[in-house]
Design brief:
Layout (H helix, E strand, L loop, with lengths): L5 E2 L19 H21 L3 E6 L4 E6 L1 E4 L3 E4 L4 E3 L3 E4 L1
C-alpha cells in the first residue's frame, strides 16, 4: 500500500492544507476507520506503540509513522499537538 504514498515526518504535518471533503466513500470503511483510530489511541497511550496513518492532503497521498495521543470528533492528535483531520485519513495500520 505504501507505494503510492509519500513518507512524511510528523513535524512537517502542521504546514499541510486539508480539504474539508470526506476521503472515504464507503460508510463501513468510515466506521472501521473510527474503530482503528480508537485502538491506535489505546496503543499509543498504554504502550507508546507507533502506527502508520495513511492520509491525503490537498496535494497528494502521504503516510506518517507516529504515536496517536488523542482522537477527537474531528481530528487525530499526535505528539506536540500536531493534528490530522479524521475525514482525510484513508487507513490506519
Amino acid at each position: 500500500m505504501m507505494a503510492n504514498f509519500q513518507l512524511i515526518e510528523k513535524e512537517d504535518i502542521h504546514v499541510l492544507k486539508f480539504p474539508p471533503e470526506e476521503i472515504l466513500k464507503d460508510s463501513d470503511a468510515i466506521v472501521q476507520r473510527r474503530i482503528d483510530l480508537e485502538r491506535a489511541q489505546s496503543l499509543g497511550n498504554l504502550e507508546h506503540t507507533k502506527i502508520k496513518i495513511f492520509f491525503e492532503d490537498e496535494e497528494s497521498r502521504k503516510v506518517v509513522e507516529t504515536t496517536v495521543w488523542a482522537v477527537t470528533d474531528y481530528s487525530v492528535v499526535l505528539k506536540k499537538g500536531v493534528g490530522i483531520p479524521i475525514n482525510r485519513i484513508i487507513k490506519i495500520i
